[in-house]
Amino acid sequence: MKAFPRTRRIGEQIRRELADLIRAELRDPRLALISMTSVEVSRDLAHARIYVTLMGDPAERAERVADLNQAAPLLRRELGRRMRIRTVPKLEFRYDEVVEHGARLSALIDAAVAADVGRHRDEADATAEPDDPKDPA
């Protein structure tokens, strides 16, 4: 779904309203730590994909996303009341793996840098001349 200025603005408004609706209307403590990373709205405003991140193991995350998708009709109805747009998009929640992949890549980079520093330190120690016991210094 390519983002156009109007769809981008509507997506941001949906993100703000959904954050408030999830907190106020659903009142589910398991959904309290959900963060919406982005919203993609189709050009005709018929569909919206909401990407979320949350803490927990993969099975628990899948369950929370399923809970959100189950509550999507209620959230859509409340969005229609708040936003005053002709067509309220059908909501589809998905887990956003970008943050998880970024953390994994960052850890790999840190490990590679640490290994490289250790290798250079070992090479520098190997090329250094051993101390001469006759050297007064």
Largest sheet: 3 strands, mixed
In percent terms, what proportion of residues is strand? Answer: 5-15%
CATH class of the largest domain equals Alpha Beta
Principal-axes shape call:
elongated
Largest beta sheet: what is the strand line-up?
1-2-3
Helix content percent band: 55-70%
Descriptive notes:
56% of the residues lie in helices and 15% in strands. It is elongated and about 90 Å long. Strand 1 and strand 2 form a beta hairpin. The chain folds into two domains: 91 residues, K homology (KH) domain (GMP Synthetase, Chain A, domain 3, 2-Layer Sandwich), CATH 3.30.300.20; 29 residues. The protein is built from four helices and three strands; from the N terminus they run αββααβα. The mean pLDDT is 85. The protein is of the alpha+beta class. Helix 1 crosses helix 3. It has a three-stranded mixed beta sheet. The N and C termini lie far apart (71 Å).
Give the key terms:
137 residues; alpha+beta; GMP Synthetase, Chain A, domain 3; 15% strand
List the helices and strands and how they pair.
Blueprint lengths: L4 H22 L8 E7 L5 E7 L4 H13 L1 H12 L6 E6 L2 H30 L10
Summarize the structure.
With 137 residues, the protein is an alpha+beta fold.
